[in-house]
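Q: what sequence does this backbone want?
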């Protein structure tokens, strides 16, 4: 972390903390928007943030689809070019031989383009972050973005909890599918037994008593095509 800071021309270079803040903006539906005057801090007009979040999602998806490759990204997302050319910075003196730059916020946007331009400002900061390849997600279970331990970490879940729940859900789905297939096979065998027995009892009633499967379940299986009604026989 210290090496990144010392090599950067920025007074406060983007770091993992900035990436985590960006991830929160991707995940949270309500977020304060920047105020035009720094002394005022942050305005809490959370109802305005939704369109900005949607645009951020779109830009992150485009970035990932590009490789990630920022040159290719700018070819497909031409709307980023003007904001990128108009990034504002202030040179700050330091106690060393090198000055540092402080990036200035674009301030509050107005009008129909507000959400898009605000998203551009936030996204350009993400592009400058040397840790941006540690962005993970969306989570295969909850859909949230997350910060990976390293850029090479391969994970489709934001937490072990999400991974365990997804694995458990998949196991339950497989178990229910296997149980249903076994029940269908049991009902099919019972239908054949009813035909061989040549019973005068209606087939659904006979099969239901033999298999302990309800007639309603048998009717639904008929409608779905999973079992076939004995030819020439009514219900």
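A:
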């Amino acid at each position: 972390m210290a090496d990144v800071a010392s090599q950067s021309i920025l007074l406060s270079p983007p770091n993992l903390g900035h990436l985590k803040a960006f991830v929160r903006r991707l995940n949270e539906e309500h977020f304060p928007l920047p105020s035009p005057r720094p002394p005022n801090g942050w305005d809490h007009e959370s109802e305005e943030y939704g369109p900005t979040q949607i645009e951020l999602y779109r830009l992150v998806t485009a970035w990932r689809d590009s490789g990630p490759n920022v040159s290719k990204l700018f070819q497909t997302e031409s709307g980023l070019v003007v904001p990128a050319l108009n990034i504002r910075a202030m040179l700050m003196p330091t106690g060393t031989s090198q000055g540092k730059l402080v990036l200035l916020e674009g301030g509050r946007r107005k009008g129909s383009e507000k959400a898009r331009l605000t998203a551009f400002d936030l996204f350009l900061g993400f592009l400058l972050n040397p840790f941006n390849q540690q962005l993970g997600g969306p989570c295969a279970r909850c859909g949230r973005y997350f910060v990976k331990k390293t850029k090479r970490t391969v994970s489709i879940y934001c937490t072990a909890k999400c991974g365990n729940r997804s694995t458990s859900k998949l196991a339950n789905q497989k178990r229910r599918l296997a149980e249903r297939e076994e029940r269908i096979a049991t009902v099919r065998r019972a239908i054949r037994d009813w035909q061989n027995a040549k019973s005068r009892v209606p087939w659904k009633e006979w099969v239901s008593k033999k298999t302990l499967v309800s007639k309603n379940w048998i009717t639904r299986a008929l409608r779905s095509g999973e079992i076939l009604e004995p030819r020439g026989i009514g219900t």
